[in-house]
Amino acid sequence: MDLSKPVDQRLAVTQWEELRDLYVALGHTVEMIDPLPGLPDMVFAANGATVVDGRVLAARFRNAERAAEGPAYAAWFRANGFPEVHESGHVNEGEGDYLVTGRWLLAGSGFRSDPAGHLKAQEFFQRPVVSLTLTDPRYYHLDTALAVLDDDQIMYNPSAFSPGSLAVLRDLFPEALTASDADAAVFGLNAVSDGYNVVLAQAATGLIEQLRAHGFHPIGVDLSELLKAGGGVKCCTMEIRTPFTAGHRTAAVPA
């Protein structure tokens, strides 16, 4: 995040549109939610909720400026036929701090989401939760320090986690890819994967090489204008996981 640099709004919209078009070209369905006046950070759709097997845990934001986003996303899911929409009593910033693997829900805390909500999330999603503590303020959400590549594989920044959390990650994911400080700084870990195609910051050249060497198809994109506001590929993308829809669905709001 660099608040000292003005955002070129026209370029930001173009970069967002290119990301949306890329998802469509890859065969994914992109759902849209109308932006609300006074809520510019709605463009970071990942923070609006977490969806697992059609169950929706709506976000509850720490900062008052974003408080209205959680109810807005919850209303969208109810209007679109999702029967289980739960509004948490604990601060949770959606897929910013909740990431889904084949077996676990990886749950981050340290700067935004409340760890007290992790057990509630486990009960709601009926999936084991692995709590992870972030320690570097540059990586304020879990999705800036870790990305899920497929059911069993992740990539992450070791320097972003507490010693205990790092030990847990090394135990659960011994073959995980690890990011250099340079790749982490350009939000290379703020990525979206469908199990083969991995969309990430084009500036994260080291990660791109690693991904290719491990059989993934990395696709570099430029979201430099959105990065100025603290967001990257994953920040702009909520993944909608349902038991009744084949393929990958994403939710997004225009920049």
UniProtKB/TrEMBL annotation:
SUPFAM superfamilies: Pentein (SSF55909). Pfam families: DDAH_eukar. Gene3D superfamilies: L-arginine/glycine Amidinotransferase, Chain A. One of its GO terms (molecular function) is amino acid binding. One of its GO terms (biological process) is positive regulation of nitric oxide biosynthetic process. The active site is at 141 (proton donor), 235 (nucleophile). Keywords: Hydrolase. InterPro entries: DDAH-like. Belongs to the DDAH family. This is N-dimethylarginine dimethylaminohydrolase. The lineage of its organism: Bacteria, Bacillati, Actinomycetota, Actinomycetes, Kitasatosporales.
